[in-house]
C-alpha cells in the first residue's frame, strides 16, 4: 500500500510539473561537470570589448590549473594535496591511500572514493605510499575528496608525528587538566577543555 501511494504521488508531481521534473533529471552532479578553464573567458571577452588596445589583467583563475575530469576507470593512485595556512606539505602527491581523522571516525580513502566533504578532528593523518607510512598529527580542518581520485586536505595545524616530544605532551596535558579543574568562568573552561582534548589526542597518537 505504501509503495502504491508513493508511486501515485511521484506520478502526479511529474504530470503537474513536467518542466521541473525534466530539470531535475537533467541536472548534473558536480563531478559530471567539465574541467574548469584556466582563464576567466567572460572577463577577458568583456575587457577586450571595452579596452581592446590594453591586455586584460590576470584574474585568480588564470593561475589555477584545470580540474582533471573524472576518469572512466579507477586510477591506481590517489593524488593528495595537503596544505596548512603557512605551508604546503603535499602537492599532487600520488599515494596508495590516506587515513583521515574524520569527525565521524577514522576514514580510509583509496583511489575511486566517492566524493565527500568531512571535518577533521584532532588525530593522526596517515599517508600510505607503498611500504612507507608517513604520519601527521592534525589539530582540525577539512578534507575534500573528489570523484576524480583527488583529495584536498586542509588543516589548521599539523606536525609529523616523529617530531613530537612525548614529555612535553604529558606536561601540557597535566597543565590543562589543572586549569580545567580550577576554571571559574565559561571562557576559562572552554580554553582549558580545548587544551585537554588536543593533548589527549596527542597522547593517544603517541601511545598508539
Automatic annotation (TrEMBL):
CDD domains: F1-ATPase_delta (cd12152). The keyword Mitochondrion applies. Gene3D superfamilies: ATP synthase delta/epsilon subunit, C-terminal domain, F0F1 ATP synthase delta/epsilon subunit, N-terminal. It is found in: Mitochondrion inner membrane. One of its GO terms (cellular component) is mitochondrial inner membrane. The keyword Nucleotide-binding does not apply. Pfam families: ATP-synt_DE_N. Keywords: ATP synthesis, CF(1), Hydrogen ion transport, Ion transport, Membrane, Mitochondrion, Mitochondrion inner membrane, Transit peptide, Transport. It comes from the Eukaryota. GO terms for molecular function: proton-transporting ATP synthase activity, rotational mechanism. InterPro entries: ATP_synth_F1_dsu/esu (IPR001469), ATP_synth_F1_dsu/esu_N (IPR020546), ATPsynth_dsu/esu_N (IPR036771). Residues 78-149 form the ATP synthase F1 complex delta/epsilon subunit N-terminal domain. Signal peptide: none annotated. Mitochondrial membrane ATP synthase (F(1)F(0) ATP synthase or Complex V) produces ATP from ADP in the presence of a proton gradient across the membrane which is generated by electron transport complexes of the respiratory chain. F-type ATPases consist of two structural domains, F(1) - containing the extramembraneous catalytic core, and F(0) - containing the membrane proton channel, linked together by a central stalk and a peripheral stalk. During catalysis, ATP turnover in the catalytic domain of F(1) is coupled via a rotary mechanism of the central stalk subunits to proton translocation. Belongs to the ATPase epsilon chain family. F-type ATPases have 2 components, CF(1) - the catalytic core - and CF(0) - the membrane proton channel. CF(1) has five subunits: alpha(3), beta(3), gamma(1), delta(1), epsilon(1). CF(0) has three main subunits: a, b and c. This is ATP synthase subunit delta', mitochondrial. The lineage of its organism: Eukaryota, Viridiplantae, Streptophyta, Embryophyta, Tracheophyta.
